[in-house]
Amino acid sequence: MNLEQLSKEQFIRDFKDTLHEEQLIKVARATPAELFTTLAKLIRRYYTDTWIDRNHKLSENKEKVAYYFSIEFLPGRMLETNLLNLGILDLVKESFEELNVDFQEVVEAEHDMALGNGGLGRLAAAFMDSLATTGYPGFGNGLRYQYGLFKQRIVDGYQVELPDSWFGSIGNVWETRKDHDIVDVKLFGDVYLQADQEGRIVPVYHNAQLLHAVPYDVPQIGFENGVINNLRLWDVEIPEAYELDYPTIEDRRRVQDITAVLYPDDSNYEGKQLRLIQEYFMTSAGLQTIVKSYLKQGLPLENIHEKVSVHINDTHPAVAPAEFMRILLDDYGLTWDAAWETTVQTMSYTNHTILSEALEKWDAELFKKVLPRVYQVILEIDHRFVSNLAKQGYDSGLIERTRIVKDNQIHMANLAIIGGHSVNGVAKLHTDLLKEDTLHDFYTLYPEKFNNKTNGIVQRRWTQIAAPELSQALDETIGKDWRKDIHQLDRLVEFANDDTVLDHFYQVKKVAKERLARYIRETTGIEVSTDAIFDVQVKRLHAYKRQLLNVLHILKLYLDLKENPDKDMVPRVFIFGAKAAPGYHFAKSVIKLINEIANVVNNDSSLQGKLKVVFLENYRVSLAELIIPAADVSEQISLASKEASGTSNMKFMMTGAITLATLDGANIEIKDEVGDDNIIIFGMDKDAVYSHYENHDYYARGIYESNPTIRRVVDSFVNGTIPNAQSEGTEIYESLITHNDEYFLLEDFSAYVAAQEKIDALYRDQKLWARMSLMNIAKSHKFTSDDTITEYAEDIWQLTKNE
Ligand code: 26V
C-alpha cells in the first residue's frame, strides 16, 4: 500500500474498523494496550505487501545478501520507529489527537524488545535499521528468547533481578512465524564416518537429538524508502515424530530452555553447555536456511560467497565457519578445498572488546559431546592450519598461539579469524589495539584481513523520536532536510554565534530536563532542579567503565559541602542507570553504594540542594530515550584502552550534552570532530596505561597515602560516612587499596576533579555552554550508523544497494 496517499480520515476509519474487528470495542473504552495492539496490527497490514515484494525482488534479481548473525538484538520499542520510517508518525499522532487518545500512553504500552545486554545488542539493532534505510539487502539472524534481559528492581539499595516476560499478554505484535522455513538441528550423539554407495565419506549419527528450529520474522523498515528487510529469530520445538522421546514436562522444559533466556553476563565468561547450544542452534539454523535459499537460484554451491555474506557478531556465532563447512561437505558433498575457499570468502567477524578474557573458549570435551561432527570438522581445520603454516616456515610459537584447538580448548575467535576474510574493531583505537595487542599474532599472519569500522547510532531514534523539541528547533534553524540527510546538521555551525538560536537550543534542553525531572519525582520521589547540571552516566555497571570514579568525585563534593556549606558551585544532579550482571559482586556493591550515598545526600538539607544523586532503576532503551536528551554532561570515563567504542557517547553528543571523557574508544573520534574546545578530556591515555602494565609500577596505596584529598574520600567508604553499606564500603576500599586499584582510578582522580571543576566554570557562562552544546549536535552526524553500515556493505560484504 502506498502510504504517501494515506489521509488522516482514511487512517481514522481504518483504525476504528480494526479496533472493532480485533477487540470488539470503541476507542473511548479501549485500554492503551488494546489501542497499541490495534495500531500495530493495522500498520502490519499497511506494510505487508511491501515486505513480501522485497523478498521476491531480492531472490528474482539474485542479489547478494548479508546475514548478520548475533546472539543479541536490542531494538527497544518498535512502534514509533516503524511509524516514522513508514512516513506516518505525524499523521498518526494528529489522528489520535482527534480521537482524543493520548498517543504517549499507547507508545508506552509496548514492552521493550530487550533481547540484548548492552552496546553489542543495541548496535546489532541499529544496523538492522540502517541496512533497511540505506537499502542494502541485510538480514538479521538471532534467537527468539522467551525472556529478555532481566528487569532490575532496587530494594533497600540492592539490585534485584526479575524475569523480563516481554511477550506479556500482548505477545510480539511485529513477528510472523514461518512454518515453511523450519529446519532440523542435531545435537549430541555419536558420529562416525562411512563410505556411501558412491564411495563418498559421509557421517553416520547415532542417538543424536533432533530438534526443530522455527523461524519468526520481524520486519525492519527503512526510513521513507519502501524497503523492508528481515530480522529472523529462531525458536526451538520438539518435532512431532520425536515426541515420545520427551515423556515428562522436565524433558520438554530442557528443550525449551534453549531459547528461554538471554544470558545476562557481560562481565564473566562461562563455558556453559546451554550457552554453547544456544550459539550453535541459531548458527546452524541460519546457515542451513541460507544454503537452501541460495540453491533455489540454481547457482553452483562453490560460488555461494558471490551471493551471500555471513557476519559473525563477536565470538558467539563463531562456530559458523565450521558449521558451514559441515553443511557444504556432509549435506551437499563439496570437496574440502572448494568448501574451505568459499567459506573463508563468505565469513567475516567483528570483535567488540579488547579484554581477551571475553573471547570464548570451549572445553574440548564439552564441545565434542554437544557437537560431535562439528568437532571433527574443527580438528581438521586446525590440523590443516597448523601444517600449512609449518610448511611455510612460520615460527612454532606463533603457530601454537594462533591455532584453534590447544590446551583442551576450542578458541572461537581464532576460528572466526582463520575461517573468514575480515576482522574488524569498532573504533580506531580499538582496531589499533587489536592489531598491536590482543590479536597481534593474527595481524602478522593476515594483515589484509584487519580493518576498522567505527560504530554508529540510528540518529532518527535519538533525535526525531527521543528529542522531538530538539528536532523542531533543528527544522526551524536549518530546515527539514537533516531528517533525511543527517550530514545537514553540520550547517548548525553557521549559527554558533547566533544568540537567538543558542537560546532556543538551551530552552529545548530545559524542556527535556523538565520531562526527566518529572519522571524522577514520580518514580523516586526525589526533587531535582532543572537549573542544576544534569550529569549522567548510564551504561552497564562494570569496573572498567569506572562508575566508581564518578562516585569518588560525588563523595568529594559531599565532604567539601559538609565542611563548607557555602561552597560556590553550580548545583548538580548526578544521574545513574546501570544493570550489573547477576553474579558480578563488585558491580552490585557499587550499585548499593550509589543508592546509599543518594540516601545520605538527598536527605541532607545542609547541602541546600546543591547536590543530588539519582539512581534510576531498570535502565533500558526506552529509559535511555528519556534520559539522554536531558543530559548536560555525558560521563564517558572508562580506563583508556578498555571501552572498545561506546555508543551512548554518540547519542549524548547528538542531543547536545558535553562529553566528559578519557581518550578511549570513540571518545577520541568525538574529540576529533568537535575539537578540543567542545569536549572535556582528562586522565591517562592508552600509552600511560600500557606503560604501567609493562613496568608494573602502579602503586595505589602510595597515591592514597600521599594525597590527603584522596585519602579523605577513600576513607569515607569505611568510616561511617555512608551508613547501611559497611560491607560494600569495605569491599570497595579493599579493591582500591589492598588489590591495587586495577583500573587506576586513584591516578586519574585529580585530573577528573579538575575536569569537573572546569565543567562547573563553563556552565556558568550560559552562552558559551550553549555554543559548545550546539557544536556537539552539529558534528554528531559523523556517527550515523547509516554510514557505518555502508562501510560494512562496501568494504566487507560487497553488497549493492537495492531500493
Ligand atoms: C565483556 C566481557 C568482559 C569480561 C569477560 C566476559 C565478557 C563478556 C562480554 C563482554 C562484553 C563484550 C561485548 C560488548 O558488549 N561490547 C561492547 O560493544 C559495543 C558495540 O561495539 C561497544 O560500543 C562497547 O564499547 C563494547 O563494550
UniProtKB/TrEMBL annotation:
Span of the signal peptide: none
Enzyme class: transferase
Cofactor: pyridoxal 5'-phosphate
One Pfam assignment: Phosphorylase
CDD domains: GT35_Glycogen_Phosphorylase
Domain of life: Bacteria
Molecular function (Gene Ontology), one example: 1,4-alpha-oligoglucan phosphorylase activity
Catalytic activity: [(1->4)-alpha-D-glucosyl](n) + phosphate = [(1->4)-alpha-D-glucosyl](n-1) + alpha-D-glucose 1-phosphate
Keyword terms, alphabetized: Carbohydrate metabolism, Glycosyltransferase, Pyridoxal phosphate, Transferase
Keyword hit for Glycosyltransferase: yes
InterPro entries registered for this protein in UniProt: Glycg_phsphrylas, Glyco_trans_35
Entry EC number(s): 2.4.1.1
Family membership noted in the UniProt record: Belongs to the glycogen phosphorylase family.
Protein task: Allosteric enzyme that catalyzes the rate-limiting step in glycogen catabolism, the phosphorolytic cleavage of glycogen to produce glucose-1-phosphate, and plays a central role in maintaining cellular and organismal glucose homeostasis.
NCBIfam families attached to this UniProt entry: P_ylase (TIGR02093)
Designated name of the protein: Alpha-1,4 glucan phosphorylase
